Amino acid sequence: MFGIMFGDVGHGFLMFLFALFLVLKEKSLGKTKLNEMIQTCFDGRYLLLVMAIFSIYCGFIYNEFFSIPLNIFGSRWEFKVS
Description:
mainly alpha
């Protein structure tokens, strides 16, 4: 269903907002007729929420925000010219 996991803070945050919207509007959206794509996302709203949280977490580990590398934690690599 949602087979991709990525580590990116920005994309994960957007997915988190969408999943949070689906969770918060659960009662009103559950009563309405949704198209097939939104219904699939609605059925997996908690899975989307957890995937978004872990995507944000992995994005901090990978230091990526919308595929732009960040240097939050610094680097331990040194290049010495001898």
